[in-house]
Design a protein that fits this description.
Blueprint lengths: L1 E6 L4 H10 L11 E7 L2 E11 L2 E9 L8 H16 L5 E6 L3 H6 L3 E2 L6 H12 L4 E6 L1
Parallel strand pairs: 4-5
Antiparallel strand pairs: 1-2, 2-3, 3-4, 5-7, 6-7
Length: about 140
């Protein structure tokens, strides 16, 4: 049975082990808010909300390859948004989505970023684009 939960900060090493085992990019830091999807107590998907200069950036969305195409990423992100927004209803959530996932994030309520990005987020995006990553800035209001 699929369960989705916010991990306590002391459990951050578990999600980093999951990312490493699946060769996923990025590592969770203790200041990140980390959600995981579990199947029979095994982590099969994860994502993080990373605080950046007073803003929140959705990063590290990853579903283990054998569990893809089952709607897990959708359920995970919807849960993250609902739980986070219940505590911080006015807070905007940003993400840098891969271009091929634009429609996926749009269907979840994210919008292409027509607003100016906060300086630190703009700097990060510029750096990522300089690494030839095909990303688009999006936000959830």
């Amino acid at each position: 049975m699929l369960t989705i939960e916010l991990l306590p900060a002391v459990m951050t090493p578990l999600v980093n082990k999951f990312y490493a085992a699946n060769k996923a990019r990025g590592r969770a830091a203790k200041h990140d808010k980390v959600w995981v999807a579990k199947n029979s107590n095994e982590i099969i998907a994860a994502c993080r909300l990373q605080p950046v200069d007073g803003y929140w950036l959705l990063v590290g969305v990853y579903v283990a390859s054998q569990h893809r195409k089952q709607g897990i990423a959708k359920k995970l992100i919807e849960t993250v948004i609902a739980q986070f927004r219940s505590q911080q209803p006015q807070q905007i959530i940003y993400t840098f989505a891969y271009c091929h996932l634009h429609d996926f994030y749009s269907a979840l309520g994210f919008q292409s970023n027509s607003r100016e990005l906060p300086p630190e987020l703009a700097s990060r995006l510029s750096s990522y684009l300089g690494q030839n990553r095909q990303l688009v800035a999006m936000y959830y209001v």
